Structure formats: structure tokens, C-alpha cells
Amino acid sequence: METEEMEDMFESSLNLEEIHFKEGYSEGYEHGLVQGKEEGQQVGLKSGFEAGEELGFYRGCIDIWNSVIQLDPTRFSDRVQKMIKQMDELVAKYPVMDPENESVQEVMDGLRLKFRAVRATLSVKLEYIGYPKTAQDSKELGF
Predict the structure, then answer these.
(1) CB pairs under 8 A, 24+ apart, for 102-111?
(2) Res 52 pLDDT > 50
(3) Is residue 64 a part of any domain in this protein?
(4) For the chain, which terminal residue's Cβ has fewer other Cβ atoms within 10 angstroms, N or C?
């Protein structure tokens, strides 16, 4: 009987290690899911804000240029007016409510390209810089 009791004691010790390993793994996995979701939300919020900010910049430029065209239709060449119209169409085409849409990057790249073309044609030193990135902003967003 003593041999069986010894074997049971060793077996329960081996099982104890396995039980603790499984519990630790399970707890770590759950913690990782929660942390990953929270970090994903923060990154998504930041990325969405940056995309919206850039779209807003282009929208503002388009609105100003369209106002100039309304006041003086001869102020810009037909070519520049066409590029401004194309920018306007690209902003309207941006899938704001569907950020996982594959065309997001394509539309944004097209906007940037058209903006550089208009800027160069008009010889304007205008550039999208973005919201100033400070250490405090990063801390507030959890980065």
C-alpha cells in the first residue's frame, strides 16, 4: 500500500503543476484579450482622428478654392478647376463610415497627389502638417 500512496502523492504533485500552468495560461489569455481590445480601441481612435483631421484639411482647401472660383471664375485655369473638382469627388468618395474598406488608402493617396498637383500649379506653399504631437497627447491617449 505504501507504494501506491507514494505514487498517488507524486501524481497529485505532477497534476498540481499542470493545473497551475493551465490556470495561469487561462488568466493570461483573458488578460491579453482585455488589454488587446483596449489598446486596439486607442489605436483606432487615434488613427480615425488623424484621418478625419487630414480629410478636414483637404475639405477646407477645396471649400476656399471653390469660393474663389465662385467670386472669379477666371482666377484658376480650367486644369486647376478640374483638379479641385476631382479632389472634391475624392473627399466625397472617402468611406467615412466604413474604415475597413479597402479603398481608404487609395482615396487618401489620390487626395494627397491631387493636393500636391494643385499646390504646385498654383505655386502655393501650403502643406498638411497635422495636429501637433506632444508628449502630453501621447500620455492622454495611453501611448
Answers:
(1) 104/51, 108/51, 108/54, 111/55, 111/58, 111/87
(2) yes
(3) yes
(4) N
